[in-house]
Design goal:
- This protein is an alpha+beta fold and 604 residues long.
- Helices cover 21% and strands 26% of the residues.
- The protein has 3 domains: 156 residues, Helicase, Ruva Protein, domain 3 (Orthogonal Bundle); 212 residues, no CATH class; 202 residues, no CATH class.
- Helix 3 packs across helix 4 and helix 9 packs across helix 12.
- It starts with a strand and ends in a 17-residue tail after the last helix.
- A hairpin with a 5-residue loop joins strand 6 and strand 7.
């Protein structure tokens, strides 16, 4: 069975939702809470400042806060839950007998403690005067079995239900902040259901119908005071959507490539994000135009184009396919870039970047000037959509150093990692998280104590907490790089010290990363950090000996959980072009490398 890597609990519908490493969702309902969350001991999470912060617990993959306000640990399976229960008994109560331990383990204000002690002694057969640490392994197993029975882990088996499903997640946002208490209406064939977003802007998971039918998503129109359909979800693949409300009325069809295709027919122009393996001829054929027209529209001197670039394609036929790239309706910086020097390939000024999670959309100002219509906006389509964001920002900054960039934007402040100043703090992780969030992917782990600081740490894409070894549930690790993978440069100890986006290959063994804080700039840099390397040494007899050793540094690769299904396809297809770092940097205003000089980064 595939590994379950993270979990959440939905108290309003009493469903535990597990996310599998292959992107599928497992929903557990019915039974009892301990069974739904694989927690036979009903172990609660230690709370610090109102947030769960287990200090020594191991093996859990999430937290379940119930309607009563108590927060429990969620485990991936019963074995993991039993293992932590045993560890908890020995760690917290090892020098106590059962009658001494239970008043703390099951306090009176939550349990009938006297009955708990009697039942546990009777069913386990453990003498009342025996300390828990004095029990044999078999006796500990009996104690665990008895606690699981008392806590109701085995109760109501006839109501238990496990379902592997496609699930779509909908988040309410104004483009920068989550919107709590937003309301949507789900219209199914057998009726409708009203849902409200929680404090983090999240709605309960929308389970796709087994018959693959669609679920209409509606909101109440502030003008007509009646439900208006704004999109739909369904099918075999779950997706993440953002409900966007900000001064405009947005229209869109969720989960469809036909998002506002009417806009395209009217404007007859789009902005296309170049994908790995693209060339001008291929794009021209796709959109029924010519390579000459594309070059003219984009001031291209030659035929070479690069992944992540945004090209203006005009003169589109009405029969041409809908865009695979975001439209640009807003700039993402109020400061326009300075005119670019004409010493290299002519570049357009950086294309305006899409708003958070925005697909191709049209917009109309409401008469009141305040749009309250929410609409489903799918994260930007295309492979690794955050790369278009990163490329556009690299072009906008055009080789500027961090002390200049921070006068216009501080990525630490933008993502809220608690730090300030690019000059004083490593900012590679903040830049990466900023690009991901701008393309509609969640980067903040609500409920984790260390969630803010993690946004500024390169190692944070792997672990939320290095001491507690808590994996970041928002990202999945890949065995090898793909275009746009989040590449974490890691020491032999396993600690990640730098992060960038995998962009291409340069020569044997060199992976090109696009990232911030590389020579104090946003630029392309080569990394040769294979996990293993072959070295030559000399034996006692003077002969050369080849040895394979573990490199002192290596790369790990991650993608957002919701991108994993696409990542699996990318792993099977070519996606990393052979490129030259100096040519790439020339495009964004960065001078060629000095011979014999390695790039440098601040670490975090």
């Amino acid at each position: 069975m595939s590994k379950l890597i993270s979990a959440t609990y939905h108290p309003n519908i009493e469903v535990a939702e597990f996310i599998c490493e292959d992107g599928r969702h497992l929903l557990r309902s019915g039974g009892t809470l301990p069974w739904r969350i694989n927690n036979p001991g009903d172990l609660t999470a230690r709370m610090v400042d109102g947030l769960p912060a287990p200090k020594k617990a191991r093996g859990y993959v999430g937290f379940a806060t119930t309607r009563s306000g108590r927060t429990f640990l969620i485990f991936p399976d019963e074995d993991a839950g039993r293992a932590e229960l045993k560890a908890n008994l020995k760690r917290m109560h090892g020098e106590r007998t059962i009658p001494e331990a239970i008043p703390d383990y099951a306090p009176k204000h939550e349990n009938n403690t006297a009955k708990y002690i009697d039942d546990l002694l009777r069913t386990s057969g453990i003498p009342a005067n025996r300390k828990i640490n004095e029990c044999t392994g078999a006796e500990i197993e009996k104690i665990v079995d008895s606690i699981a029975t008392i806590e109701g882990f085995h109760a109501r088996p006839e109501t238990r239900k496990e379902t592997w499903v496609a699930v779509s997640r909908i988040n309410a946002t104004d483009g920068s902040q989550p919107l709590p208490d937003a309301e949507i209406i789900l219209q199914r064939e057998n009726g409708e259901e009203r849902l409200k977003s929680d404090a983090t802007g999240r709605f309960p998971p929308v389970i796709h119908p087994a018959d693959r039918s669609t679920v209409a998503v509606k909101v109440i129109s502030p003008k007509a005071k009646e439900p208006v359909q704004i999109g739909s979800v369904g099918g075999e693949t779950g997706k993440d959507f953002n409900l966007l409300a900000k001064f405009r009325k947005w229209k869109g069809v969720a989960g469809s490539e036909k998002i506002n295709s009417s806009t395209m027919a009217n404007e007859k122009s789009i902005r296309y994000v170049v994908q790995p393996g693209d060339n001008l001829s291929k794009i021209a054929k796709l959109y029924r135009t010519s390579t000459a027209a594309i070059k003219a529209n984009n001031n291209l001197d030659g035929d070479r184009i690069y992944p992540g670039e945004v090209l203006l394609i005009s003169g589109i036929s009405k029969k041409s396919p809908s865009a695979t790239a975001p439209s640009a309706t807003k700039k993402w910086s109020s400061t326009a870039p300075a005119p670019l020097p004409k010493t290299s390939r002519a570049l357009n000024s950086p294309p305006p970047a899409p708003l958070l999670g925005q697909g191709v959309s049209d917009s109309v100002r409401s008469k009141e000037g305040v749009g309250k219509i929410l609409a489903l906006i799918h994260p930007i389509p295309g492979r690794a959509p955050w790369m278009a964001i990163a490329i556009a920002e690299a072009k906008l900054r055009y080789g500027q150093r961090e002390e200049v960039i921070e006068k216009e934007i501080d990525y630490h402040v933008e993502v809220g990692d608690g730090s300030r100043s690019l000059s004083n703090m490593a900012w590679c992780a903040a830049f990466a998280n900023w690009c991901l969030s701008k393309s509609g992917y969640p980067v903040t782990n609500t409920g984790f104590r260390d969630r803010r600081a993690t946004l500024g740490r390169a190692h944070g894409f792997y672990e939320m907490d290095e001491k507690e070894k808590i994996r970041n549930p928002l990202f999945v690790e890949l065995a090898k790089p793909i275009y746009g993978a989040i590449a974490v440069a890691t020491y032999r100890s396993g600690h990640g010290y730098h992060v960038g986006f995998a962009y291409g290959n340069e020569g044997p063994g060199n992976l090109i990363l696009l990232g911030g804080n590389q020579d104090d700039k946003i630029k392309f840099s080569p990394f040769n950090m294979s996990l293993l390397q072959t070295v030559e040494t000399y034996g006692k007899d003077g002969r050369k000996i080849k040895k394979t050793i573990k490199h002192s540094k290596f790369l790990r690769y991650f993608v957002p959980v919701s991108y994993f299904s696409q990542a699996q396809k990318d792993l099977a297809e070519p996606g990393l072009d052979q490129l030259d770092v100096d040519d790439l940097n020339k495009l964004i205003g960065v001078p060629p490398r000095e011979k014999g000089k390695d790039h440098k980064t601040k670490t975090n």
